[in-house]
Write a structure and sequence with these properties.
Blueprint lengths: L5 H13 L21 E3 L9 H5 L5 E6 L4 E7 L8 H4 L7 E3 L14 E10 L6 E4 H11 L7 H10 L24 H13 L2
Antiparallel strand pairs: 1-4, 2-3, 3-5, 5-6
Helix pairs in contact: 4-5
Amino acid sequence: MRKPKLRELGEAIRAIFLGPYTSKFPFKPSPAAPRFRGIIEFNFDKCVLCGACVEVCPAYARTQEDDKIKRIRREIHHQERCIYCGQCVAYCTTKEGIKHTQEYDLSQIKNEGYDNVIEKELILCEKCGEVITTRAHLLWIAKRVGELAYANPNLFLVLSQEYGEEAIPKITDAAPYRSEHLKFLCPACRRSVYLKEIWGY
């Protein structure tokens, strides 16, 4: 009879006191590696719904919808399509809006529950009604650029509303000079306002 190797004998003795080498999955999940790309979650306080993650997703696992009537932008992460490449996390504008978790067990019986959804308030152009971006996105930009935010009317307005100030003047029959500047305007409408003041059309 062949005698067992010393290494195998040592492993058997250690297993008696320390337990088996194999994991007890699925009864007890095994811990993932620190940099493991697990299930992706939104950070509601840090995500500004800028749409960068939607643009870089190679699997088209993210969709973004703008509801102009309710003034809401909605982003959906379809986990069943996601390949967990990590591009959305790497190219996140705030670097904190989305993150990978350590959770890797995606198996379940029903199809429901695979979508992660987040919603934010939209800012619309007050002249043409086109979408500018979300309020959270404007606030993030304004706080990032600091004092330079007061040079941009959109950033100035969103900061004023955030701090509870009355920034938008009341509309009267005889509007004051440059009253249209203190409005949320898209780039095209703001350009037309400037040209109208300079050239009169």
